[in-house]
Amino acid sequence: MVLIRSERADGREISCNQFLIAKDKDEIIGCARIKELDNCLELGSLVVRPQYRNMGIGGKLVREILIKDKRRPVYLLCLAQMASFYSRAGFNEIDIGLAPDTLKKEYSLVGSKISGKIIVMINP
Questions:
Q1: Taking the model in full, what pTM does it have?
Q2: Sign of torsion, CA 101 14 9 48?
Q3: C-alpha distances in angstroms, 119 versus 25, 63, 80, 96?
Q4: Which CATH number is correct for 2-123, 3.40.630.30, 3.40.50.300, 3.30.200.20, 3.90.870.10?
C-alpha cells in the first residue's frame, strides 16, 4: 500500500489477492493488479520504485499477471506515451467509445487528475 501511495497509483478497492509483486530480497520493488470493475477487468496500479525502473521489471509484471489471470478482455488506461510499452504485452489502443461504460467513468476520473493525453488499451 505504501508503494501504491508513494507513486499516486490507484489505491481504491485494494485486495491483496489482486496483486502480483516484485521483490528485491525482502523489499517490495514493484506491483501490478487486475481490478474487477462492474463489467470489465482493468490492469492498474503498475508501480516500480524509481531506482528499479528501466530494468524490465514493469514489463515482466505485466506479462506475468496476464499469464496468471487468464480472464479476458483486460483493459487499461495510460498516458499516450506508454502505448508502446503496453503493446509489447499484447495491448492495442481502442477508441474510448468502444470501452465498457465503467471504464469510460474511470477515463473521466483519470483525465481530470492527470495532465497529458490518456488512452484506452485492450488485451483481447
A1: 0.86
A2: negative
A3: 35, 20, 6, 7
A4: 3.40.630.30
Q: In what order do the strands lie in the sheet with 27-36?
A: 19-24, 27-36, 41-48, 74-79, 118-123, 92-94
Distance CA 116, CA 80 (A): 8
Instruction: Return the domain boundaries, the chain.
Output: 2-123
Q: What band does 114 get if pLDDT is binned at 50, 70 and 90?
A: confident
- Does pLDDT of 63 surpass 90? yes
pLDDT of residue 4: 52
- DSSP calls for 33-84: EEEE-SSSEEEEEEEE-GGGTTSSHHHHHHHHHHHH---S-EEEEEEGGGHH
